Fold each of these.
Amino acid sequence: MTAQQPCTTASTRQPTSRRVLPAIALLVTLAGGLIGAQAASPEGTWGPARPETLDAGLEARIDALMARMSLEQKIGQIIQAEIQHVTPDEIQRYGLGSVLNGGGSFPELDRRAPIAKWTELATALHEAARRPMAEGLPAIPLLWGTDAVHGHNNVHGATIFPHNIALGATRNAELVRAIARATAEDVAATGIDWNFAPTLAVSRDLRWGRAYESFSSDPQLVTELGRAAVLGLQGEPGAADWLGPRRVIATAKHFVGDGGTFMGIDQGDTRVDEAELAAIHGLPYPATIDAGVQTVMASFSSWNGTKLHGHRYLLTEVLKDHLGFDGFVIGDWNGHGQIPGCTVSDCVAALEAGVDMFMVPENWREFRTTMLDHARNGRLSLARLDDAVRRILRVKHRAGLFDAATHETRIRSTIDDHSELARRAVRESLVLLKNNGGVLPLNPSARIAVVGDGADDIGKQSGGWTLDWQGVTGTNESFPNGESIGAGIAAQVRASGGQVHLGENGLSEFKPDVVIAIYGEDPYAEGHGDLESLEYQAGTREDLDLLDRLAALDAPVVSVFLSGRPLWVNPHLNRSDAFVAAWLPGTAGGGIADVLLAGADGNARHTPSGRLPFAWPAEPLPADDGSFEALFDFGFGLAFGDPSSLDRLPETDMAPRAVSFVEQDNPVLFDGNAQAPWRLVLRDASSQHTIPAEGQIASTTGEQPLVVTPTDRRLQGDARRVNWSGSLGDRVALVSREPLDLTALVARGGQLVFETRIESGAPTPVELVVECGGADCPVTLPMSALVADTHNNWQTVRLPLACLGARGVDLSAISSLFSLRSATPAAVSFGAVRIEFGNAPDTGSAVCPD
Ligand code: BGC
Ligand code: BGC
């Protein structure tokens, strides 16, 4: 059996033959001999046709309502805007159908917004929609959607559950249902009606940056757990609390083939025949439609070259007509704009194909104008528009939104703490891959050291889609109810009379009996997580260096690996006596100690029960279809006491080490993303607080925050706009964790070069600050001395590093070479922060500023 594409669930079969073409094995099982058959109609390929079961009374109410609606209102209903880009008045005036909050978008941009701020905004938006429109037109309630993909993950203080891949390892549908139910309660409590979850992707390629949003590579397992999630979110169809006040509308996403793209490229092309599309990627849909799912999100990806947002056959003939889906199709974030011939603000084709509601976060005004114009001029089918509106109204009715009391009964002043449930999920999700010599479980009264950058970092252990889209802005204080993995271990060891040592400092003096190393992938979301190779830390090997240092201690090493997917870790396995795949566990970090540490009597308290939801690679480079040689097969997972004697594994495939920053030919600090070793952060005036600023919107808290947003210079999002309206003295900075010695760059004639655009009055009050070791640091240079006074134009700044030396900057210990600060309100953009060598060309100034 080849990697990652199992044809049965929950089996622990050992591999027999390698690199069998995965789809074929699967189709034999599922489609009983349908291999390769290209169906001309959904019959046979997508399973039996499902009849629609509409409620005649409800349809009659919708008819009556629609008869009173204006064309403008109908166009309004098919629009979903983002909460930062729309006001309650606009919702009322244009009769907009829906809003969403994108990942990392909070009421008033306050990342610590208390529940009351969410419910206030929800109430204001809902009330605006309920105010009668002009000329006695009917008021239509609003729907607010959010991505609560592992708990209510945009909300400060919410319990963050393990990501789907970890839930796939539990194989526990009842648990998934309970988590979805708890999530629904939290979402409903904030006045939000709709969750863009569950993801039903059957990820077939671990290079895909969304693999962790997928429960499994196995379509059956995804189906079983996806169905459970829908039932947990919405309730059981027919039951009294179905879509009741403590439930929310679910979304089956992303239809269809999102997990099958060529080489795992996000938003890419799924190149399979229809039988394989239906049997693998389509399998979860009929079951979730049966479970009552009310919305389906179209995928950004294509099927054999055609974007799903424009795929009439799949969205309309298969999903709606054949599978009997009678809710509505929501487009993904500007996804319609990717159809050839469409733009974000103009796209009839997606409506015609079957998208019912359009996620047009920012450009919805233009979209509204053009679509209205098309409708008036006959370029858009009014029958199709009516069908879309009817579907949206049907879901709003079913969800009780026409009853104003629903909103009032659902909002609450607090959300519950679900950490016990989350902790149980963490325990059940751990997969033990190696336990040589029966090192685990550990004696809790021993001397235990805990090291690694995952040991005390709740943001890291939670992964992407946590407090912001990429999951990079959370520090431990951002999770008031969270516990880091290391803190959980320390608490339990101390309670059992053992001794704990945290970190590498003083480690050899501590003389540990055992070392637990916690490390793994840093957070990412969507395409930002796409990989070319499955080698963990290809080129940098920081954690391998850590494991090598630990070897000197002569104590067994237990690795706890945090990751959104299986990765090639042969070198790490070789340097570990025990190895636990912990996925992205979320805020209940204590669940890991529950398993690793034995009870006081020496007996295990919880033996690991997680089973791999994806095969684990024995080689770093998969084939184009995502398959690889498996080191541990799908379904593998040891319990304590199982014989484990993993031999030394080959390490020959390791990528060469990357050249360090100072040795590079063209060192770049920032080109849209901060380049390692640099990170983009916000730092308050007193340097007490630093928050990562890689998110879409970053801001310090406070009445008038310092806000950093992506802006475009040459490419989308390749620059950042920084706006100080208050938070004066706060800085946005490119920092390095360890101070860097840049003297070699000075010797090469290096200059700090960046592009900037001054966006508020001259002379600009913004200052460039360099942070370094030494008494004269930090050194501050007024930007007005570096830039010409051309406003709103991009210009190049060149600053020879030697000039900084002359100013007293200690170039052997630079912690930030580029940071911006302003003591008065100001706005400025920057991009392409880099080092160039030699004499400056004729752009910009290369002289030392006064
Ligand atoms: C993602 C969706 C998500 C949407 C709204 C998109 O980028 O693909 O999964 O629901 O954004 O945040
Ligand atoms: C939003 C996400 C969204 C993504 C789509 C981000 O700005 O925060 O919710 O999924 O854009 O590209």
Amino acid sequence: MKRSVIRGTGRFLPSRCVTNDDLATMMDTNDEWIQQRTGIKTRYWIPEGETVGSSDLALEASKKALENAGWQAEELDFIVFATLSPDVFFPGAGCFLQTKLGITDTPALDIRQQCTGFIYAMSIADAYIQSGMYKKILVVGAEVHSTGLDKSTSGRDVAVLFGDGAAAVCVEAVETENKVGILGTILKADGKFAEKLMIELPGSKYPERINEEMLKTGGQFPIMDGTRIFKLALRKLPEVTREILEKTGMTLDDIDLVIPHQANLRINEAYQKTMGLPDSKIFNNIQKYGNTTAATIPIALDEVIEQGLVDTQSSTVLFLALGAGLTWAAMIYRFGE
Ligand code: ACO
């Protein structure tokens, strides 16, 4: 049977490290609040005043992933680009990335599943691979949040959380009877919470997508009912974990490492406690990067491989995410072949 196997990973973080003290010069916040409530110490933002899109960050990450896989960009059959911060309203960032990679004709699909973007994107790659349509797929998660945040005190609940960054993985179709690659996926969405976390403007539903008056409402910045999302995460992440374990016929003992989305360290700590996981079985890096949304899980994956925290011949990992939409998802991946 056809299995979707990761051949290479790569990440790219912009050079500008922004500390909590740096944020305190822009808005009424402080290092203690941010660390206590979120776990975040630093995040990376694109250089101030420069024109850098998500596709630019994605390009650097993709070059590393391709090199790691030993692939040329020309070999790619398909690109899936997950982002909530595309370079422009349209076309998708995947098209910009494709041309920056120096290739033509390769189909490129953007998806907008926010923090769950990487898992949704991997599931799309997996479906194309299993159908036999494509063999070599580049899956990318990339975000430039920093140019879209309200950095005044009124936006502080959201602005302190987000970082820019990108990561990519090369996924290949492998014909094998072994249980390797993507072993199971569960995708979920509940649109009744859509307005609990969103950027409203520009909005095609309005007679004018954006104008001076609309800008005064601040609808061009993200808004979030943080407490609501927090509570949903505490319930849904364990739920979807149990569901995927049941679906794949596994138990938590079969999972070597949980790689969860990084929205808030407290969410991941509560999840760890609920599931009874030892520290060695869950990976967190929110302290360094903040929430990089669609880029978070592939950045973490690239780091755990680099740090030798997984055996790339045999480890089984669980990807887990929840975010705007509301969307949430889980995927079990086994290294090997
Ligand atoms: N600095 C200082 N004080 C702040 C800040 C800040 N940056 N932000 C908020 N506060 C204040 C509030 O004004 C409030 O003050 P008050 O008590 O005087 O009213 C107080 O701190 C507590 O605010 P809460 O919102 O209750 O703080 P909470 O502990 O809930 O933490 C947070 C807020 C971090 C946003 C949390 O709710 C959270 O992480 N929610 C989930 C986020 C998430 O998972 N998002 C999904 C992924 S993102 C995506 O999909 C794009």
